[in-house]
Amino acid sequence: MATDGAGTARSFAIILIVHLAVLVLWQVLVDAFHVPKFILPSPLATVQTLGTASYAWGANTLVTAIEILGGFALGAFVGVTLAVIFSWAPLLSLVLLPLFVTLNMIPKVALGPLFIVWFSYGIVPNILIAFSICFFPILLTTARGLREVEPDLLDLVKSLRGSRWTLFRKIQLPGSLPYVFSGMKVGAILAVAGAIVGEFIASERGLGYLMIQVQSSLDTPAMVMAVVLLTLLGVALYGLVLALERTFVVGDARQT
């Protein structure tokens, strides 16, 4: 346990040092070559935009965070639920899964105007766009995980007259968790993209909306700051998924 903790701390330190080195190099190069602020602002110039009250960073970041988290949570719930249903009803999987594949091929940018017509402006259509982008990888990876459980274990539980629920709870679910979290990590990344797509198309709040507003005045520092905040939101959601994975997958493996 101590070795694992030291290894984790060392990895985190290396990651932090690399990121800090990139920021320092960015600042040095911008200052050395006198790059105009509207082309590429320095990290210090970017951070200074946080003091501009008219940008309402807190409120806009909160709106985007709600859209990302809402779309991801809905995508994870629907994706895992459908995968479980498909594992219990192969005929239903044969009928519906190809349809989901086809629907997933639709460019989500093209769905944006339709969502606005159907649900008007606001957080809800952006949540739905984020959901439409992130749920499919979760569905596919979870369905694969449920299919790839060892047949011998399934036969053993069936020979002991275990119920379908017992089979799922004791064998299929634990065996599929690595696949579930793999899909969720991909979904976390896509949820950020989905929320921003919605805000770019039509929105009245959020970081994407703010980027569109400051673009006309060539306020590049504010645009870069919005990108940084979006990145931090994505990293936070990805870190949450990693923490859950360590709890439910790595933790279970250590107990066994």
TrEMBL record:
A Gene Ontology biological process term: transmembrane transport
UniProt KW Nucleotide-binding keyword: no
Subcellular location field: Cell membrane
Key words, A-Z: Cell membrane, Membrane, Transmembrane, Transmembrane helix, Transport
Bilayer topology: Multi-pass membrane protein
Bilayer-spanning residue ranges: 12-35, 55-78, 85-106, 118-140, 179-202, 222-244
Any Gene Ontology CC annotation: plasma membrane
Domain ABC transmembrane type-1: 61-242
PROSITE patterns: ABC_TM1
CDD domains, sorted: TM_PBP2 (cd06261)
Presence of keyword Membrane: yes
Source domain of life: Bacteria
Short name of any one Pfam family annotated for the protein: BPD_transp_1
Family note: Belongs to the binding-protein-dependent transport system permease family.
Protein name, as recorded: NitT/TauT family transport system permease protein
Organism, as annotated: Bradyrhizobium stylosanthis
